[in-house]
Amino acid sequence: KWRKVEEGRKRYFTNSEIKQLRDFFRDSEYPAMEHFIELGLSTGMRNAEILGINQTPDSLPEDMDTFGEVRTRDGQTYVHLRETKNMKPRIIPLAPRALKAFKALDKNPLKFYDHHKFYQVWAAARDHIAPGDKEFVPYAARHTFATNLVNDSPASDLVVANRMGHKSLATTKKYAHPKDESNTELLNSFVG
Fold first, then answer.
1. I need a surface site. Which of 7, 101, 156, 160 has the fewest CB within 10 A?
2. Is the distance from CB of 65 to CB of 78 less than 8 angstroms?
3. For 105-144, what is each residue's pLDDT tens digit?
4. Which residues, including other chains, have CB under 8 Å from residue 35's CB and lie 6 or more apart?
5. Residue 40 to residues 43, 88, 160, 164: CA-CA distances in angstroms?
6. Which helix or strand (DSSP H or E) is residue 54 part of?
7. pLDDT tens figures, 52-108
8. Half-sphere exposure of 135 (CA within 13 A, CB side)
9. How far is the CA of 26 from the CAs of 40, 59, 126, 189, in angstroms?
């Protein structure tokens, strides 16, 4: 018997919120946060996947098991994730913004990660940008990546599912949301 797929979180960051996050983190006590969120927004990687870049099973903290390495092929830099949440390796291209963020973290995000500071600075950003919004969480960067890929590019559901590391298109549909501005543009094209 198949279980019903839950709707999941509907939250993604708007362009205005992304700009505010970048500005807030850049001027915060933990500027590495800007680079962590940029990697999430630009790649759709989970936080544990970001932290596992250029790690090995032996170099990971006990509570982590995702790891991978950065490679370059045909002029394209990408992350080859080995152990992921769904146990399926995947390739994540690093677009220019992601590559810049990765380099700013000295090509070793785990070295710059401080759990306490990460969530303390995130809470301050939420209070500043979206007070009281319980869904304004770092994981929404992953939803934002999928939403932008679906709305702002000709990517098919299969491409999005592959980039996100989903086994099921039903899971991908929980991540990619129609943007309000896209709905408005579509309606205006019929009315106008």
1. 7
2. no
3. 999 999 999 999 999 999 999 999 999 999 999 999 988 8
4. 101, 102, 104, 105, 109, 112
5. 5, 19, 15, 11
6. none
7. 999 988 988 888 888 999 999 999 999 998 877 777 788 899 999 999 999 999 999
8. 10
9. 16, 28, 15, 38
Q: Is the dihedral of CA 144, 45, 98, 138 positive or negative?
A: positive
Q: What is the DSSP string of 21-84?
A: HHHHHHTSS-THHHHHHHHHHHH---HHHHHTBT--TTTS-TT---EEEEEEETTEEEEEEEE-
pTM of the shown model: 0.81
Judge whether 102 and 53 are in contact, CB under 8 Å: yes
Nearest CA-CA partner of 137 in 40, 39, 32, 15: 40
Please give the structure tokens belonging to residue 90: 């995947």
Cβ-contact 174, 4 below 8 angstroms: no
* Token pair of 107 as six digits: 């090509």
Instruction: Report yes or no: 46 and 29 within 8 Å, Cβ to Cβ.
Output: no
